[in-house]
Amino acid sequence: MAAASRNFEDCLPLMANKLGGDGLIGELCNGFNLLMDADKGVITFESLKKNSALLGLQDLSDDDLKCMLKEGDFDCDGALNQMEFCVLMFRLSPELMEASRFLVEDALEQEFRDSH
């Protein structure tokens, strides 16, 4: 899984810079829609395995796919909803996590300046 997440990790910040925040979230939602089980509205192991080639993840083993699901499955229901998927994608990109931290800090500083 390291090679696949490394490739994605390298592309996600570039996508963010090119598309902006709203555009990136839109693309993540599109990725979610490609991977989800249409009947259940979530990404299951079966839907991830079936559709993973669409995102270049066809070389991941079943164990890698299960680990990916488990890592993002905050409510422990065995599947990823759209929010869990988006959070997982951000967590897999440390550069975006760091940039997000700075954006929050800047917003808090601005809010503090505006209130005084």
From TrEMBL:
SUPFAM superfamilies: EF-hand. Pfam families: EF-hand_8. Keywords: Calcium. Residues 60-95 form the EF-hand domain. One of its GO terms (molecular function) is calcium ion binding. This is EF-hand domain-containing protein. It comes from Citrus clementina (Clementine).
